[in-house]
Amino acid sequence: xxxxxxxxxxxxxxxxxxxxxxxxxxxxxxxxxxxxxxxxxxxxxxxxxxxxxxxxxxxxxxxxxxxxxxxxxxxxxxxxxxxxxxxxxxxxxxxxxxxxxxxxxxxxxxxxxxxxxxxxxxxxxxxxxxxxxxxxxxxxxxxxxxxxxxxxxxxxxxxxxxxxxxxxxxxxxxxxxxxxxxxxxxxxxxxxxxxxxxxxxxxxxxxxxxxxxxxxxxxxxxxxxxxxxxxxxxxxxxxxxxxxxxxxxxxxxxxxxxxxxxxxxxxxxxxxxxxxx
Length: 277
Hints:
Distance between the termini: 25 Å
Oligomer: single chain
């Protein structure tokens, strides 16, 4: 998922935190994986590509569901791919392999994959049109691409609340949706437009919502400050005493979402899919 803001070494540094929180991430995004697979319409696939697989999902789950298929996961983070490959070995998934590469320049032949999936990675591409056209190149005619991206920021209170408090405390604008980032593709219809610029056809878009649970206020803070790229970036130059003020204000603000000592937030994503002519 190479891009100007987040090069490979950035994601390498995030890899251990993502592995620590992978159970939360996978539970969080399991409904998204299910929706992506429904959009792919897979029937006896031979080769499937997972672009921006990170530490292995959803590629590992797809490899387990389709043991006769060859599943390849790509990413720009060698450390994350090492983790993904290690998990494949632990699970005995000989049909899963990894390749370190940029999404806009992949080392695969034309018309190579039956289907391509990208879960919450496309919004980090340095050039979305170029990335989608490269994916279209490696797809077989009639093959399908399905991607997911976060929905409107205000419909993802689990993170928007934190970003709003950081902005209020620091008195500076933190987020520009026109730059690569978690909510770069949040507006309805934007991803569908990009699909069309990449010459994908029969484009469909589906809005998804769900509930994410955190076991405590502290867990929520640790998650968003270690896993959520936009919060990590927003805090990186803020002195620790100011970060502590932010943490305290966030803890107070999330109190209304506590039920039996656990936090519950609604999340919003969008799945977009299309077919290669």
